[in-house]
TrEMBL record:
One of its GO terms (molecular function) is zinc ion binding. Keywords: Metal-binding, Zinc, Zinc-finger. PROSITE patterns: ZF_CCHC (PS50158). Gene3D superfamilies: Zinc finger, CCHC-type. It comes from the Eukaryota. Residues 1-22 are annotated as: Disordered. This is DNA replication licensing factor MCM4-like. Coiled coil: none annotated.
Amino acid sequence: MGDRPISTNDMNNTDSPSQHTLNNQTFAEIASNTTLPKMNQAIVFNSINNIKQIEYVSAISKIVPAKNIIFVSRISNNRFCVFFNSQTVMENLLKTHSSIHVNGIDIPIRRLINTSKRIILSNVYPTIPNQLILNALHQQGIKTTSQITHMKAGFATEQFSHILSFRRQIYINQDSATKLPNSITVTVENTTFRIFITDDIVTCFQCHQTGHFSSQCKNIPDPINATNETETVTESLIDLSP
C-alpha cells in the first residue's frame, strides 16, 4: 500500500512541538513567566462614591493610551490604584497632570509609593509670605520636602482659569505626618491668621467620612423622616404623661 496523501486538513491539524507545549501550559506557568510590574509604576487617588471603575479608566485613557494601563483595582481607605506598563509612563502622567476629571469632579492623583506626603494649607490669605508658614511648620517639628505652591481656584472657564484660591500645598516627610497639628497661626503686620492643615484625602463636611464630597453625601438624614421621628417621639411623650 502506498503512502496516503497529506490533505490540507492534516497540515492544519499538525502541531509543532513548541505549539503543543504552549497549548498545555497552565495559567500558573504562564503567569510565572510574566514580568510583574513594580510599585513605582502605579498611581493612586481617592475613590468617589457612585463612580464606576470603568469611568476612572476611561478618564485616564484620555491622557495615557489604554494599552499602557495594565492593572486597576479599588484598594483600602477608599482609594483606587492604577498600574502602568512602565515607570516612565507614570512619571510623564504626573508631570503633565495633577488630577483626572471624572463626572465633573477633579480628582488629585499621586504616586502609590511616595516618601513624601502632600498637605493642604487652607484659609491662607494672599498677603501671607510662604517663609512665615515654613517657619511655623518647622517649629512644630515638621520636615518639609518641597516649597509651598499656590493652588488654583478651579474654574473650568479659560477666562478665569488663572485665578488662585486661598489654599496652598506642600510636601512633608512621611515621618512628620503624625506631628501635624490641625492648624497653625502666623502673624503679619500685627494681624494673626489661622491656617488650617489637611491632607489630600477627600473628606465630607456633612458626615466627616472620607471618600466623597458633601454634595454627594448620602448620610444626611431625610428631612421628612426626621420630622416624622420627632412627631412620633412627641406623641409618645404625650401618651406617657399623667
